[in-house]
Structures are given as C-alpha cells and as structure tokens.
Amino acid sequence: QVQLVESGGGLVQAGGSLRLSCVVSGSIFSVNTMDWYRQAPGKQREFVATSTSGGSTSYADSVKGRFTISRGNAENTVYLQMNTLKPEDTAVYYCHYYHAPRVAWGLKEADYWGQGTQVTVSS
Fold first, then answer.
1. Is residue 84's pLDDT more than 70?
2. How far apart are CA 15 and CA 119, in angstroms?
3. How many angstroms separate the CA atoms of 50 and 59, rounded?
4. CA 101 remoteness from chain centre
5. CA 91-96-98 angle, 5° bins
6. Which helix (DSSP H) or strand (DSSP E) does residue 59 occupy?
7. CA distance 27 to 29
8. What pLDDT is recorded for position 73?
9. Diameter of the chain by CA atoms?
C-alpha cells in the first residue's frame, strides 16, 4: 500500500508564494507518476501538475509559468512551488500517486490520494 500526506497549505495574499509538500511512503515502485490536483468550493477536482519518475513534467494551462512540480532526492516526496498566487488558486490541493501493474512481478496497480491541504489566496 501507498500512503500520502500533504502539508504546507495556508492563507496567503495575492501575488505571494507557497510551497506544498507530499510525503509518500509504502510500496513505492520506481516507475511511477505523481500529480497535484485541486478542488475549489462547488467545483470538480481539476488537474494541476504531474511528474513522472523518468523526469517528465506537465502543467495545466491555468498554472503554467507560475507553479513548479518537483521531487525530493530520496524520491519519497513531491513538491508544488506556487508563485504569483491568485484568488482563483484557492482550493484544497491533493497529492496523487500512480503506478501501472507488472503482472510477471506480482505488482498490482496502485492509485492513491492524500487527504488534501487547504490553500486560500486573498485579494
């Protein structure tokens, strides 16, 4: 099993910065994808950023150029550096982990979510 715990959320003024952290533990496979999603009040959960173990990253258009996803050296953490924050960034931010199954190795698919951390950006 895989466990994810987010931290670093809080209240910040528009134009400010915040860094979210996600600590990952458990049965982590070396080939994996880690992502950040967010959900604003009354809205559906939306994709923010993704990072593959191979080093690829991708971002939603709404955050590109302002947010940066990265991994720790130990590969058991993922970060989201958020700069030039806007009120529309206000949401609960969720960390997500995925790896595909490897049947020959007895490796089951893993798809796990953290509990989320609140980010509030004031005008």
1. yes
2. 13
3. 7
4. 21
5. 160
6. strand 57-59
7. 6
8. 76
9. 53
